[in-house]
Automatic annotation (TrEMBL), chain A:
Domain 4Fe-4S ferredoxin-type: 61-90, 92-119
Matches recorded under Pfam families: CbiA (PF01656), Fer4 (PF00037)
Keyword DNA-binding: no
Keyword Iron in record: yes
UniProt xrefs under Gene3D superfamilies: 3.30.70.20, P-loop containing nucleotide triphosphate hydrolases
GO molecular function annotations of the record: iron-sulfur cluster binding; metal ion binding
Full protein name: MinD superfamily P-loop ATPase, contains an inserted ferredoxin domain
Entry keyword set: Iron, Iron-sulfur, Metal-binding
Organism: Desulforamulus aeronauticus DSM 10349
Automatic annotation (TrEMBL), chain B:
Family matches, as Gene3D superfamilies: Dinitrogenase iron-molybdenum cofactor biosynthesis domain
Organism whose genome encodes this protein: Desulforamulus aeronauticus DSM 10349
CDD domains recorded: MTH1175 (cd00851)
InterPro entries (alphabetical): Di-Nase_FeMo-co_biosynth (IPR003731), DiNase_FeMo-co_biosyn_sf (IPR036105), MTH1175_dom (IPR033913)
Pfam families the record matches: Nitro_FeMo-Co (PF02579)
All copies of domain Dinitrogenase iron-molybdenum cofactor biosynthesis, residue ranges: 15-102
UniProt name for this protein: Predicted Fe-Mo cluster-binding protein, NifX family
């Protein structure tokens, strides 16, 4: 079972839901993996005081020029769709932060003057405690293409585990990379026009990708039905409501998960998981 | 020597467009022949790294000096490799900036004056 957690809008509580969901499943017979794929700002590790067992660097290939072979034909410049190579006088200028590692330049260079060389783009850290594993991805400072690091985190997915993937906000490539191939996506939102606006974008993205989803309303207030009306209209299940409460925010701000600060949430998260299992089975 | 000014129009009476990679035109003046003409900045149509595409365009038009407002790190690196000198102004008509350049009143950029714009 692979469950992704997305939101559209940032700061709605994806990590709050992901961490408590993972902790509520500790008694399940299957091991639990929490993948922190919010690689630009990974923070799930703050809630689990675990020692990192290992870390692996993530590399992407970028072109390197051998001037003894280069004939200054400009084929590589013509091929590059990202302007990552410029031919200026007798210099081939390569811009690593613009390169998307497509490989077009070194495949099509007529003299094999361009060769792929590894560029570090991030790291993947693994922490383990009993049957629980936390895998965190970190994008290297100055790098701005996150999907390769997200994919490196997801390469650690264990098919026999319950895999929970905490993703970044938005609805573009990084989020598509975290929801891709998952059995279900939990969308965490808040009852504000901003929460709704970005929720709509995320739902539309999931529909294109054909991934089933349901909604968790965080910071819920009884008199506000802005999200309820949308979900009813779209036939989306509301899986859980987390009320707007100072106590929840206060504990969370100290790095304490919801289920640890208030254990009566544990059965609710377990029910959330069982609901997702039922939704997937349908 | 060819001097190009990033502009919003095609003549010396048009305003400077301070965005190097996204300006509409470059008004080019040839110091020796005194000729003036404009080229469209096709680099601005790039989805990303417009500054690099723009620098390549200026290089292809054998420009020696570019006058603009803002130059980012990638564009600066590309212009440096092309041996194109960068002078920065803030605002005014193309003719005013050319005048300031000739009088030595524009500062030569020794590095990018804005951060990366993303790509």
């Amino acid at each position: 079972m692979r469950i992704s957690i997305a939101s559209g809008k940032g700061g709605t509580g994806k990590t709050l839901v992901a961490t408590s969901l993972a902790l509520s499943l500790m008694d399940q017979p299957r091991p639990v993996q929490l993948l922190d794929c919010d690689v630009e700002e990974p923070n799930a590790h703050i809630f689990f005081k675990m020692k990192q067992a290992g870390s692996q660097k993530v590399f992407l290939p970028i072109p390197k020029v051998d001037y003894d072979q280069c004939q200054y034909c400009g084929k590589c410049v013509e091929v590059c769709q990202f302007n990552a190579i410029a031919l200026m006088k007798r210099t081939l200028v390569i811009f690593p932060d613009v390169c998307h590692s497509c490989g077009g330049c070194w495949y099509l260079c007529p003299t094999e003057a361009l060769q792929p060389t590894p560029r570090e783009v991030g790291a993947v850290g693994i922490s383990q405690s009993g049957s629980f594993t936390l895998v965190s991805g970190t994008l290297k400072l100055g790098t701005h293409i996150s999907p390769p690091v997200i994919k490196a985190v997801r390469a650690k997915e264990d098919p026999d585990s319950i895999v929970i993937i905490d993703g970044p906000p938005g609805s573009s490539c990084p989020v598509m990379t975290i929801v891709d191939g998952t059995d279900y996506c939990i969308l965490v939102t808040e009852p504000t026009p901003f929460g709704l606006n970005d929720l709509v974008l995320a739902v539309e993205m999931l529909q294109v990708l054909g991934i089933a989803c349901g909604v968790v309303i965080n910071r819920d207030v009884p008199e506000n039905d802005i999200i309820d009306r949308y979900c009813e209209d779209k036939g989306l299940p509301i899986l859980l409501r987390i009320p707007l409460k100072t106590e929840i925010a206060r504990a969370y701000a100290k790095g304490i998960t919801l289920v640890e600060s208030d254990p009566h949430w544990k059965p609710k998260f377990l029910e959330l998981y069982q609901r997702v299992v039922r939704e997937v089975a349908q | 020597m060819r001097v190009a000014v990033s502009a919003s129009g095609q003549t010396q009476l048009d305003e400077l467009n301070p965005r190097l990679g996204r300006c509409e035109y470059f008004v080019i003046v040839d110091d020796v022949s005194g000729e003036t003409w404009a080229i469209e900045n096709t680099g601005r149509l790039s989805t990303g790294a417009a500054g690099i595409a723009t620098a390549t365009l200026l290089h292809n038009h054998q420009v020696d000096v570019v006058i603009t407002g803002n130059v980012g790190p990638n564009a600066f690196t590309a212009l440096e490799a092309a041996e194109i000198k960068v002078y920065t102004g803030t605002k005014g008509k193309v003719q005013d900036l050319l005048e300031q350049y000739r009088n030595g009143n524009l500062s030569k950029a020794s590095g990018p004056n804005v951060g990366p714009h993303g790509s």
